[in-house]
Amino acid sequence: MRCLLAATIGLTMSLAGVAEAGQAFDVIRARGTIVCGVNQGVAGFSTPDSRGDYRGLDADFCRALAAAVFGDPAKVRFVPTSSQNRFTMLQSGEIDVLARNATQTLQRDTALGLNMAGVNFYDGQGFMVRRSLNITSARQLDGATVCIQPGTTSELNIADYFRANSMRFTPVLIERPDEFVGAYNSGRCDAMTQDASQLASYRATAVQNPNDHILLPERISKEPLGPMVRHGDDQWFDVVKWVLTGMIEAEELGITQANVDQRLRDPNPVVQRLLGVTPGFGRALGLDERWLFNAIKAVGNYGESFERNLGSGSAIGLPRGQNDLWTRGGLMYALPLR
Ligand SMILES: N[C@@H](CCC(=O)N[C@@H](CS)C(=O)NCC(=O)O)C(=O)O
């Protein structure tokens, strides 16, 4: 019922938002800044550093967008959003793009009227428990109390999983991330369920002693995370989609933050088109021909952003796994930039 109500309110707001705001891309260009909805704090995706600057894979993507659109990665305003209010904030035009570990689903596309611009992280839902619980599988969680963030796909998936396995659980729904982790830390729940990447992030940065906690091996869902925009803003949708694609393509071609200047002299016609040496893609998107050059110069290619924020160069230390390039056995495959 709550979901249905949210969907109806969302749809009404979506229509109102579009009527008021006009085409998002025109509004953004006139304003001179991109308003990017991020999460309130999940290390590796988006979290403010000691100076209040947002860092993470999603925050990097917002900076890449600003660099592509304005030639300046600083022309972005980060707005924290919760799991519950993120979609209405996008529908109402309070944010231009949602880059917030949001899973792409049929209901969000249709009932909520949101377009998904691609996947920047392939994930799946998991469980974290205290090692002292002495269990090794989610199938041993019958009767457990589980901390869940409301308004997430996790809330629906866990209900399906327990029903399918004839098990029961008591949900503890907590919206704010600090209170959510606090509830788990204080022993109010036996397990915490979330996208596995977010559990890994919490384990590395938010629980008292990481070694006292384990991620159970089951992944009970598919969670393709990626940026979203409103239905009806096709030009803006194209920009968001091709900046993400371009960052993946740059990794495929070995174009990095450090070598992008030299690669301007690369005779490969594919690289010349990508970096705007041969014009065309910029004009097609309504951007400067250096759109992708500027994005890569600002934050690096997809793999560099992954490593810095979530991978070996970060406190979280996730392997690339499914998020590696298709040429190395992962799922990251850039659509053709032609
Ligand atoms: N991918 C899932 C879950 C996304 C989500 O909101 N996860 C929570 C749990 S880690 C989160 O990001 N919390 C941080 C916040 O509320 O700022 C979805 O789109 O529903």
From TrEMBL:
Keyword ATP-binding belongs to the record: no
A Pfam cross-reference name: SBP_bac_3
Protein name: Amino acid ABC transporter substrate-binding protein
PANTHER family, per database record: AMINO ACID ABC TRANSPORTER PERMEASE (PTHR30085), AMINO-ACID ABC TRANSPORTER-BINDING PROTEIN YHDW-RELATED (PTHR30085:SF7)
Signal peptide: 1-21
InterPro entries per UniProt: Bact_solute-bind_prot3, Solute-binding_3/MltF_N
The UniProt record lists the keyword Signal: yes
Source organism: Belnapia arida
Family note: Belongs to the bacterial solute-binding protein 3 family.
Record domain Solute-binding protein family 3/N-terminal: where: 33-263
